[in-house]
Amino acid sequence: MVLEWDLDPDIEVPISAIEHYSYCPRQCALIHVEQTFDENLYTIRGAIAHERVESGEESAGETGRVLRAIPLWSGRLHVRGKADVVEMRPEGPYPVEYKVGRSPGRHAERQLCAQALCLEEMLGVSVDTGAIYSVATRRRQAVAFDRQLRAETIAIIEAIRADMIAQRLPPAPNDTRCRHCSLINSCLPGVVAEGPRMRGLQGVLFQPLQALPDDD
């Protein structure tokens, strides 16, 4: 089987795009295909929460060295990005992803799993578990990188890569996800998700110019 991404090995999927796609494929394409990004309260909170993590400082933890802002990549999956934190434990690397929300959920778990897949390829070791740290609750949620989570993550990477190769923008969902999305004004889900309304607006916007009268 030849994957679509094999047609253009130079295109790499950013690890951060995995959570974007998992939440909303259109949001992912707006950011990573059309290079559109707007800030809102939630994105600013996330940036503040990552300030210390992104310093790249190394420290010592109870279980070993703690590495921050570590570059990651996978030649097999054609992905690249970085890990917020990697704890170098005796049993192996333990990636930790920082999130602002109280319950990051499956979207963040898939992003973390991609980091584990990169670490496995880079270091030649198995990475079976990691954690998501909630800044809001100051607690960790352990994540097991089982077969199902790995399959979901790889499938999302393939889908993102296909959109990047095709320069494709998926349809707008126009549902509850849109309410807190920073890209709502760029996406316009309430307009583009309604076919008749969209066609009517296109008809108004793209009317041919009237011929100018000839000069006497």
Any chance you could write out the topology, listing elements then pairs?
Elements (H helix, E strand, L loop, with lengths): L12 E2 H9 L1 H8 L8 H9 L9 E3 L2 E11 L4 E11 L2 E8 L5 H19 L5 E6 L4 E6 L2 H20 L17 H4 L1 H4 L2 H11 L11
Parallel strand pairs: 1-4, 5-6
Antiparallel strand pairs: 2-3, 3-4, 4-5, 6-7
Please characterize this protein's 3D structure.
It is a single chain. With 216 residues, this protein is an alpha/beta fold. The protein has one domain: Lambda Exonuclease, Chain A (Alpha-Beta Complex). Helix content is 39%, strand content 22%. It has 8 helices and 7 strands; from the N terminus they run βαααββββαββαααα. Strands 1, 2, 3, 4, 5, 6 and 7 form a 7-stranded mixed β-sheet that branches.
Keywords:
disordered N terminus; alpha/beta; elongated; 216 residues; seven-stranded mixed beta sheet
Give a quick summary of the entry:
This protein has 216 residues and is an alpha/beta fold.
* Structure summary, number of beta strands: 7
* Uncertain parts: 1-7
Which structural class is indicated by helix and strand composition? alpha/beta
Mean pLDDT across the residues is 83
The domain count comes to: 1
